[in-house]
Amino acid sequence: MKILAFAGSNSKTSINKQLLNYTLNQIENAEIDLIDINDFEMPIYSTDRQVENGFPQEAQDFYKKVQDADGLVISLAEHNGNFSVALKNILDWVSRINMPYLKGKKLLLLSTSPGGYGGGNVMEVATKYFRMFASGEIVASTTFPSFHDNFQNNEIVNEELKNKVLDQVNIFVEALAAVEA
After folding, report:
1. Rounded CA gap, 83 and 79, in Å?
2. Residue 107: which of 77, 137, 82 has the closest Cα?
3. Percent of the chain scored above 70 by pLDDT?
4. Which of 6, 16, 98, 109 has its CA 20 to 30 A from that of 123?
């Protein structure tokens, strides 16, 4: 099984990248392509740019990575209740290459924040977006509240949250395995 994984943040110190790395370490027997969205920075999407210049190579490369994967693990950063601008721009470009670009893909969505809602706002946005517009199948998702209290030394220290994350990982891996069977 091939998994594409990334955090929806362009911050070098992203807590979503930390949660993503922990989560990926719980997945066995998979080929994981962990990418950094900073490697896919491109001009802000506009139809004028698309008509004048076509699709940036970064958009085409990102799209290819999505198409090569059986499933995606995405840890979503919340910026003002929504996707980060960096991720939104990538999604805007890729969606113009081919919509629905996630058709047939299984998704595990994560979000975290320093606060008690754990990125719940961006999770709501993402759930609607990835299902409705991109046609991805969200098979598992979870929010992770109060990151700095519950994640220390690269480990989840809250047993309830640890079990919640592991349960979602298992659901995702089982869904991918069922496709291979």
Report:
1. 6
2. 137
3. 100
4. 98
Q: Which of 121, 129, 124 is nearest to 92 (CA)?
A: 129
Region for residue 138 given its phi and psi (left: phi exceeds 0; alpha: psi -120 to 50; beta: otherwise): beta
Please indicate, yes or no, whether the overall pTM of this predicted structure exceeds 0.90: yes
- Rounded Cα distance between 160 and 143, Å, is 12
Cβ atoms of residues 150 and 114 within 8 Å: no
Give me 50's structure tokens. Answer: 């698309």
Q: 40 — phi, psi (to 5°)?
A: -125, 30
Q: What are phi and psi of 151, to 5 degrees?
A: -135, 115
How many other C-beta atoms can be found within 10 angstroms of the C-beta atom of residue 56? 17
Average pLDDT over every residue of 111-120: 96
CB 34 within 8 A of CB 3: no
The neighbouring-strand residues paired with 156 are: 151
**Angle between the N-to-C axes of helices 57-68 and 85-97, in degrees from 0 to 180, rounded to the nearest 10:** 80
116, exposed or middle or buried, with CB in 10 Å at 0-12, 13-18, 19+?
exposed
